[in-house]
């Protein structure tokens, strides 16, 4: 049964103003009652009577039955969302970091209170991947879900590879277009797609994995030599988030640059677009493409969630209730291109196989097999060494990890 929504909104940026326009210019069954903002001095485009500076004016208001949260501060958003759910209010949020860090607790509160927490807008822009996984694939075993989850980094990579721009220029363009923040670390450091991957995994496999337990590596150390290598091989570089089945009830996850060739489904996904590839047991591969950066793509997803709240729609997390639990592992081999400057920078890295090594004054790299677990252990140090890593995409038999430590290879042994 459809119900009239009375909305309390947190934040009034581009998306918030767009939503207000939709509600006032259409017969959409929703009414914005209050908007909580932080800056008292900022001039607003609508009547001041809509605004409050106290969050409890919304959270303690019994007439408001839906909270729409669109602020940047993840911890402040968490406090708002948690209290709203406990008060019996449904919630729509676009804050992927907040949801990723607290999803298990918030889902438990949702189940206890019978409320709804929707976050389509927190993952992959205009692509409805969250609800697709929650509904279409709710009973189907998935082999993998992977894709370009960050439009900002994809825009930058498109410009440096397709248009020969240098990295700083491409980043500046992304910032000028509103795709990247003044501090772009979340995007180019692969944290934004990391948080989105956590949300995808919760729906695809019913597993709540903290983002700090996943290996993520971005494109901030990308150099002209890496671009040159990719072009010479007929490849492109894409920042890809991926979860895949490695055993019957075991999955592995990562977010990192990949080399992709012209046959890859994501090869032609360019600029600020996102692309998601779902490989399932019965429906085979399906590809979803849509804009992943900018106010309008996010706004469309927020509006879709708000519309669903008219019918008290909620995610069921059916796979989380399956009897056979899914386990998560980082003990998985991948083949990487690893570009470095000095042998001392990779002296503590153990490789299982080295198939290629190039040494020049300004350009050194190896193509080698390494455990995802070791990359995870080193991930905070690798950027300081100006190391760039890209997954080659070649499948590696997991058996290579079954050897002893004596089977590992140091680069010094290969020279």
Shape: globular
Report on the biggest sheet: 7 strands, mixed
Number of strands: 17
In N-to-C order, the SSE pattern is EHEEHEHEHEHEHHHHEHEEEEHEEEEHEH
Helix content: 25-40%
Question: Which value, in Å, is the CA radius of gyration?
Answer: 23 Å
Helix-strand makeup class: alpha/beta
- Counting DSSP H or I runs of 4 or more residues, the number of helices is 13
Describe this structure in words.
By secondary structure, the chain is an alpha/beta fold. The protein is built from 13 helices and 17 strands. The protein has helices at 14-25, 56-59, 74-86, 96-113, 129-136, 151-162, 167-176, 185-188, 191-205, 224-232, 295-309, 372-378, 411-414, and strands at residues 5-10, 30-36, 51-52, 66-69, 90-93, 117-118, 142-148, 215-216, 236-247, 250-260, 273-280, 284-291, 327-328, 333-340, 353-359, 364-371, 388-391. Strands 7, 8, 9, 10, 11, 12 and 13 form a seven-stranded mixed beta sheet that branches. A six-stranded parallel beta sheet has the order 3-2-1-4-5-6, sandwiched between helices. Helix 3 packs parallel to helix 4, helix 4 packs parallel to helix 9 (191-205) and helix 6 crosses helix 7 (167-176). The longest helix is centred in the N-terminal third of the chain and has 18 residues, at 96-113. The protein is globular and about 65 Å long. The relative contact order is 0.13.
């Amino acid at each position: 049964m459809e119900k009239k929504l009375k909305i309390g909104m947190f934040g009034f940026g581009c998306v918030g103003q767009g939503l207000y326009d939709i509600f006032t210019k259409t017969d959409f069954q929703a009414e914005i009652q209050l908007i909580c903002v932080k800056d008292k001095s900022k001039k607003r485009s609508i009547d001041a009577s809509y605004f409050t500076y106290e969050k409890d004016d919304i959270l303690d208001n019994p007439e408001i039955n839906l909270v729409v949260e669109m602020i940047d501060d993840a911890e402040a958003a968490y406090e708002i969302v948690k209290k709203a759910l406990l008060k019996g209010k449904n919630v729509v949020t676009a804050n992927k970091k907040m949801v990723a860090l607290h999803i298990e607790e918030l889902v438990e509160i949702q189940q206890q209170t019978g409320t709804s927490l929707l976050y389509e807008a927190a993952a992959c822009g205009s692509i409805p991947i969250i609800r697709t996984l929650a509904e279409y694939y709710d009973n189907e075993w998935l082999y993998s879900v992977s894709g370009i989850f960050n439009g900002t980094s994809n825009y930058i990579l498109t410009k440096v590879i397709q248009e020969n721009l240098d990295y700083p220029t491409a980043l500046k363009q992304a910032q000028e277009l509103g795709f990247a923040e003044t501090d772009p670390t979340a995007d180019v450091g692969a944290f934004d797609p990391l948080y989105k991957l956590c949300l995808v995994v919760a729906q695809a496999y019913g597993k709540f994995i903290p983002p700090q337990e996943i290996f993520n590596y971005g494109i901030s150390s990308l150099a002209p030599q890496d671009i040159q290598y990719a072009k010479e091989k007929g490849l492109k570089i894409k920042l890809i988030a991926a979860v895949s089945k490695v055993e019957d009830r075991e999955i592995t996850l990562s977010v990192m640059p990949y080399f992709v060739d012209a046959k890859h489904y994501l090869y032609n996904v360019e600029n600020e677009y996102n692309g998601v590839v779902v490989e399932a047991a019965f429906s085979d591969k399906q590809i979803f493409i849509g804009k992943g950066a900018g106010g309008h793509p996010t706004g469309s997803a927020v509006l879709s969630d708000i519309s669903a709240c008219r019918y008290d729609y909620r995610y069921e997390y059916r796979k989380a209730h399956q009897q056979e639990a899914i386990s998560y592992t980082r003990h998985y081999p991948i083949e990487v291109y690893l570009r470095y400057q000095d042998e001392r920078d990779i002296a503590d890295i153990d490789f299982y196989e080295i198939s290629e090594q190039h040494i020049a004054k300004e350009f050194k790299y190896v193509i080698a097999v390494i455990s995802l677990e070791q990359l995870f252990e080193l991930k905070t140090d690798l950027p300081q060494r100006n190391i760039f890593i890209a997954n080659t995409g070649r499948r590696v038999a997991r058996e290579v990890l079954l050897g002893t430590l004596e089977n590992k290879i140091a680069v010094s042994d290969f020279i």
